[in-house]
Model the fold of this input.
Amino acid sequence: MRETVHIHWLLLVVICFYLSWTDMRQRRIPNIVLLVSGIFTGLSGAFLWGWEQWMEHLFLTGGILLAFGLIAWHRPALIGMGDVKLLGLLGFALGMRGFVLTMTWACAMAFLVSLLLLLLKRIDSRTPIPFAPFLTVGLLVYGLGIS
Done:
């Protein structure tokens, strides 16, 4: 069973690396990858977790999609809908604790990189940056048990 959890996490990391690459290169996160990943995560979660834990993850995902979706709807320059759907996928896959720790690391890294780029005058305060790479870093830090 433990190996199954590691494979599940490893696949999530591979998916996030691909989504990070597309976010950096094309400034978009493909819906088809998110859909297939969501289906896989939902089905594998049904086998890895009990019914109650699966439902907890589902409700967490709904809350994430609602909260961040409203932000994206009202302020589209702040966060894209691809990021919102990726956050929902991570919330479902990781649960509350994993999601919060991943987001904490992602936001901290995004802040530090943005600050460095601002100080080096590579970007200005209005330059959008892709967030998926920072989510991937946060996922790696969480998964490797550094947090």
